[in-house]
Amino acid sequence: MLEMIGKALDEDVRKVINTCQTRINRITRVLDGLYVFSRMPQTEEAQKDLNKIIEEVVASQNERLRNG
Q1: Cα(12)–Cα(6) distance, rounded to whole angstroms?
Q2: Per residue in 42-55, pLDDT tens?
Q3: Using one digit for the tens of pLDDT, what is the confidence trace for 3-24?
Q4: What is the DSSP code string of the chain?
Q5: Integer distance in angstroms from the first to the last C-alpha of the chain?
Q6: Burial 10-44 (b: 16+ CB within 10 A, else e)
Q7: CB–CB of 41/26 below 8 Å?
Q8: How many structural domains is the chain composed of?
Q9: Which domain, by its residues, includes 38?
Q10: Cα–Cα distance measured from residue 17 to residue 6, given in angstroms and rounded to the nearest whole number
Q11: Would the pTM of this model clear 0.85, i.e. be above it?
Q12: Is 14:6 a contact under the CB 8 Å cutoff?
């Protein structure tokens, strides 16, 4: 619709409309990419218990500090 109206507008207004359209297209591509990324299957590492990993690291560091 803007393209049809744009023919009746002056050059500066057409440039602004073109810039807006370019940016809207870019935003659409970014959002599409984020949507695809959000639907990616979770990996095994992402499903691990973070508390358990932290406990193991803390225990390892405590042992290291006691011995060294």
Answers
A1: 10
A2: 666 566 778 888 88
A3: 666 566 788 888 888 899 999 9
A4: -HHHHHTTS-HHHHHHHHHHHHHHHHHHHHHHHHHHHHTSPPPTGGGS-HHHHHHHHHHHHHHHHHH-
A5: 73
A6: eeeebeeeeeeeeeeeeeeeeeeeeeeeeeeeeee
A7: no
A8: 1
A9: 2-67
A10: 8
A11: no
A12: yes
One-letter amino acid of 26: R
- And the tokens for 29? 């591509």
Rounded CA-CA distance 65/23 in Å is 55
Residue with tokens 């002056």: 10
For 20, the token pair is 């807006």
Contact predicate 5/18, CB 8 Å: no
Q: Residues 17, 9: contact at Cβ < 8 Å?
A: yes
Tell me which residue of 18, 15, 36 sits closest to 26, measured CA to CA: 18
